[in-house]
Design brief:
By secondary structure, the protein is an alpha/beta fold. It has one domain: Nucleoside phosphorylase domain (Rossmann fold), CATH 3.40.50.1580. The chain is 32% helix and 26% strand. It contains 7 helices and 9 strands; from the N terminus they run H-E-E-E-E-H-H-E-E-H-E-H-E-H-E-H. It has a 5-stranded mixed barrel, surrounded by 4 helices. Helix 1 crosses helix 3. The mean pLDDT is 91.
Length: 274
């Protein structure tokens, strides 16, 4: 099984290398409602997921489903406009398949974004939280199964899953651009249901500041393969909320779209600083 995955990654990378001659050094994964960020990229090549061998296909509203190759802040980048989630029915290995491919393409740094529920009572809808750590007990580890030694060690160290020097750069960018940035812990769940009130309280008690249905599996695999990771959450709803406040996916997308200009500025400047 592991040998088959290695071959699939190599075949996909070879296909993409034939489509695009550049050498991306940074990969960006755009979360729910953040697809417009792609307009900031000087696009050199777009490839639909449906055209890429072995690639899953995004099924969620707010995720367009294409790889974008090009230039941003003077760096060669590749962006996923639309990601894959465990709750769509994909295996954890399928969810992280693009990250494996990015490494095969030569990517060294992975920037992740997501829409998340605020658990920290100091957060408001539309805030941006830099993820400085995560709790992954609520979602399956994508490294379960036979380890592929050429990709990484059996027991990867996760003491610094999100690189401190990238977090420091982002905080400086936020201060210079007068953008308020929170910093905190992201709790990963499978979804697709939003959390119950009791679950939100539990997540808060164990030390998380935000909760979401993505990102952590991608982060784990990127660390396994020796890539540097930076991640942010846009707080699109509040988990510790009023009794009648019911969350809808449409409201999540609306909040993500409203916060997108701030995230675009942060990512654009961070890529310049890398």
């Amino acid at each position: 099984m592991s040998e088959a995955i290695v071959e699939k990654v190599k075949e996909t990378a070879a296909f993409l290398n034939a489509q695009y001659e550049g050498q991306p050094q940074i990969a960006i994964v755009l979360g729910s409602g953040l697809g417009n960020f792609a307009e900031k990229i000087k696009v050199e090549k777009e490839v639909a997921y449906t055209d890429i061998p072995h690639f899953p296909v995004s099924t969620v509203k707010g995720h367009s489903g294409k790889l974008i190759f090009g230039e941003l802040s003077g760096k060669k980048i590749v962006a996923m406009s639309g990601r894959f989630h465990f709750y769509e029915g994909y295996t954890p290995q399928e969810v992280v398949f693009p990250v494996r491919v990015f490494k095969a393409l030569g990517v060294e740094t992975l920037l992740l974004s997501n829409a998340a529920g605020g658990v920290n009572p100091a957060f408001n809808v539309g805030d941006i939280m830099i993820i400085n750590d995560h709790i992954s007990f609520g979602t399956p580890n994508p490294l379960i199964g036979k380890n592929i030694d050429e990709w990484g060690t059996r027991f990867p160290d996760m003491s610094e899953p999100y690189k401190k020097h990238l977090v420091a750069k982002a905080k400086a960018i936020g201060a210079a651009g007068n953008i308020q940035l929170h910093e905190g812990v992201y709790f990963a769940v499978t979804g697709p249901t939003f959390e119950t009130r009791a679950e939100y309280r539990l997540i808060q008690i164990v030390g998380a500041d935000a909760v979401g249905m993505s990102t952590v599996q991608e982060c784990i695999v990127a660390n396994h393969m020796g890539m540097e990771v930076f991640a942010v959450s846009i707080i699109t709803d509040l988990g510790i909320r009023e009794e009648e406040n019911v969350i809808t996916h449409e409201e999540v997308l609306e909040a993500a779209n409203a916060a997108e200009p701030k995230l675009a500025y942060l990512f654009t400047e961070l890529i310049k600083a890398i």
